[in-house]
Amino acid sequence: MIAITGANGQLGRLVIQQLLNTVPASQIIAAVRHPENAQDLATLGVKLRQADYDQPSSLLSAFQGVEKVLLISSSEVGWRVPQHKAVIEAAKQAGVKLLAYTSLLHADRSTLALAGEHLATEQLLADSGLPYTLLRNGWYTENYLASIPTALKYGALAGCAKEGRIASASRADYAAAAAAVLTKEDQAGLVYELAGDEAYSLTELAAEISLQSGTTVVYQDMAEADYYTMLQQAGLPDGLAHILADSDTAASKGDLFDQSRQLSQLTGKATLSLKAAVAQALKS
């Protein structure tokens, strides 16, 4: 059986959808904090098991009889390392044969503030003796698409990435990669640097938005501190504002760029293009 942690989240649900294409629903476990919020998955035949990163006993129960686990990194930045450690220890105790972890693109050399917890988790896995695979996910295209309504309103796409190249991919692309690893043989010990086939700058993103919407949008590059303040003033929580501003600065240094195309090689399908992604966002 295959267990997906955080299965009620955006990525987790997409992974389950991908798995259902090749794996019987009865062999898929949605490990979720609140099973009552995932009853629609149960209607598909997927098994629900309560699993809370902060309750190790629930994790051990959730992993009973499980062969492979996908550990989707916790959304609770700052608390990820102890939470991930609990998952790893429970998986080892339950006799799991492979744990795949959604890490960060080039975590071992990334300057993103988010990299620290991912790298610490990778070290926990290395020390655990548990067979594991690293899915080093790049940036989600959706992180930038969410800014389109504001960009259209003000005629400007703000950021602090300068002309850094961003090889982002959609959540669905990363989900397909995770499902591929979980259904392939001999994946233990592999490290995948996952990113989109196509890279772009925020200037190019603004131009694509302009082209498809018919509204002129320009990229407004700012100092990181100014962009951070702007995000705060727009109502974003302090932590999220910091992450977004920091990631843009990292993008300016090339930390969101990769041209290995390991993602599309793994899935056998080209990643969603920037043109298609913008078109989808404008329709929604």
TrEMBL record:
<protein>
    <submittedName>
        <fullName>SDR family oxidoreductase</fullName>
    </submittedName>
</protein>
<dbReference type="Pfam" id="PF13460">
    <property type="entry name" value="NAD_binding_10"/>
</dbReference>
<dbReference type="InterPro" id="IPR036291">
    <property type="entry name" value="NAD(P)-bd_dom_sf"/>
</dbReference>
<dbReference type="InterPro" id="IPR016040">
    <property type="entry name" value="NAD(P)-bd_dom"/>
</dbReference>
<feature type="domain" description="NAD(P)-binding">
    <location>
        <begin position="6"/>
        <end position="184"/>
    </location>
</feature>
<dbReference type="InterPro" id="IPR052718">
    <property type="entry name" value="NmrA-type_oxidoreductase"/>
</dbReference>
